[in-house]
Automatic annotation (TrEMBL):
This is Cytoskeletal protein CcmA (Bactofilin family). Belongs to the bactofilin family. InterPro entries: BacA/B. Pfam families: Bactofilin.
Length: 126
């Protein structure tokens, strides 16, 4: 996994954060977040006791706890044996341990552009 030069922020066990969270570097969720988490260059780690209710968007995401909402890991997502995702999981690369649960769709993120749109019939081709 990539090392991050920024500082790591922590939502401690027993703490609850309400609202959207945007950051640089890394964030570790040991408590509860009620809101979306976004970073363009960072790592989100949800520990075994951590819970997020909202959308999570980051290049690198490590899940050992629970996320209720869609997850967008543009580069890499790692699901530990106690990971629970209730929502769709969009990923560049995925590692999934035995025991991890995803209640939603698994959707790989395409690297380049949109998927090719084909005509429905030969008559549509000009």
């Amino acid at each position: 996994m990539q090392r991050f030069t920024g500082k790591t922020s922590l939502i401690a066990a027993g703490a609850a954060f309400r609202g959207d969270l945007e950051f640089q570097g890394a964030v570790q969720i040991d408590g509860r977040v009620l809101g979306d988490i976004r970073t363009e260059e960072g790592l989100v780690r949800v520990s075994v006791d951590g819970q997020v209710e909202g959308e999570v968007r980051a290049p690198h995401i490590v899940i050992d706890g629970e996320i209720i909402g869609d997850v967008y890991a543009t580069q890499h997502v790692e699901l530990g044996p106690k990971a629970r995702v209730r929502g769709n999981l969009y990923y560049g690369l995925m590692e999934m341990a035995m025991g991890a649960q995803v209640e939603g769709g698994l959707r790989p993120i395409k690297e380049q552009g949109r998927p090719l749109e084909l005509p429905e019939s030969v008559d549509d081709v000009e």
